[in-house]
């Protein structure tokens, strides 16, 4: 009987070890290390997180994070520009290892991918046509059939405006730039999008032309997305995030926030 119990314990231990080995072997993290390259899906065009400079190079908040991530892994970084409406499919089908592209965590997206802990929390705010200054004092007052509200197709901003605005006319566009241009050109009354983008837009092209209703409509955590069933990669990413947030000596997290979310000198590189 003792021999049988010992045999069962040995068998169970061997199976557990084999299972752990298989999990690690199939982990994205292990494949990245073997390949020597971290492949990141992102959509350039979402300032200040990822966009192209005058020379066509992809720069931004998320790019700096991805570069540090690859450095800590000891691998090269490969950025893969991907259309937003196909970015989750690209990840799920193995065309990249991770999405680092200012992606908001939503329950619908979480059904398809897993998210690391949020690295930043933003909300949707409103850039309003200056002609409405004084007439409209809060975002909710725009919910009127006579007003047209625009945003980018397939984003959390679209989800937000369809939730909060039941009476106003809603129009979506392929890019943020196309959508906000409608307000600048007096073809729409308001543009709804992520607060960091709107703050930077007001510091540049929107100055004196638009009104920023800066009280967020929503609570939106941004996070990195990976394929499901990969605890090793998720563990590494969350530890990496805790390290860069908690290290006050290097303070990479504070530096990157100041560089891209407070200072606007980088705008000269993309104009």
TrEMBL record:
Query: What residue stretches are annotated with the Ionotropic glutamate receptor C-terminal domain?
Result: 37-263
**Protein family membership:** Belongs to the bacterial solute-binding protein 3 family.
Signal peptide as annotated in the record: 1-18
Location of the Solute-binding protein family 3/N-terminal domain: 37-263
**Keyword Signal part of the UniProt annotation:** yes
* Species lineage: Bacteria, Pseudomonadati, Campylobacterota, Epsilonproteobacteria, Campylobacterales
**PANTHER family named in the record:** GLUTAMINE-BINDING PERIPLASMIC PROTEIN (PTHR35936:SF38), MEMBRANE-BOUND LYTIC MUREIN TRANSGLYCOSYLASE F (PTHR35936)
Protein name stated in the entry? Extracellular solute-binding protein family 3
Q: Which GO terms describe its molecular function?
A: ligand-gated monoatomic ion channel activity
Q: A GO CC term?
A: cell envelope
Q: Which organism is it from?
A: Arcobacter nitrofigilis (strain ATCC 33309 / DSM 7299 / CCUG 15893 / LMG 7604 / NCTC 12251 / CI) (Campylobacter nitrofigilis)
UniProt keyword list: Signal
């Amino acid at each position: 009987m003792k021999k049988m119990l010992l045999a069962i314990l040995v068998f169970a231990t061997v199976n557990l070890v084999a299972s752990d080995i298989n999990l690690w072997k199939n982990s994205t993290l292990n494949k990245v290390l073997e390949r020597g390259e971290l492949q990141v899906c992102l959509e350039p065009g979402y300032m200040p997180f990822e966009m192209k400079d005058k020379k066509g190079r992809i720069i931004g908040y998320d790019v700096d994070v991805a570069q540090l991530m690859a450095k800590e892994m000891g691998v090269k970084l490969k950025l893969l520009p991907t259309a937003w409406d196909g970015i989750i499919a690209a990840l799920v089908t193995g065309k990249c290892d991770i999405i680092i592209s200012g992606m908001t965590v939503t329950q619908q997206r979480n059904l398809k991918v897993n998210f690391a802990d949020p690295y930043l929390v933003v909300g949707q705010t409103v850039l309003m046509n200056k002609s409405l200054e004084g007439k409209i004092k809060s975002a909710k007052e725009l919910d009127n059939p006579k007003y047209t509200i625009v945003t980018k197709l397939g984003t959390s901003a679209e989800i937000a405006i369809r939730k909060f605005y039941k009476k106003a006319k809603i129009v979506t566009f392929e890019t943020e730039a196309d959508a906000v241009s409608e307000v600048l050109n007096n073809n729409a009354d308001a543009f709804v999008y992520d607060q960091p983008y709107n703050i930077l837009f007001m510091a540049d092209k929107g100055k004196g032309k638009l009104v920023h209703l800066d009280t967020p409509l929503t609570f939106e955590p941004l996070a990195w997305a990976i394929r499901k069933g990969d605890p090793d990669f998720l563990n590494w990413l969350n530890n990496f995030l805790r390290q860069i947030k908690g290290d006050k000596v290097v303070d990479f997290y504070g530096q990157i926030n100041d560089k891209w979310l407070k200072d606007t000198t980088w705008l000269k590189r993309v104009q």
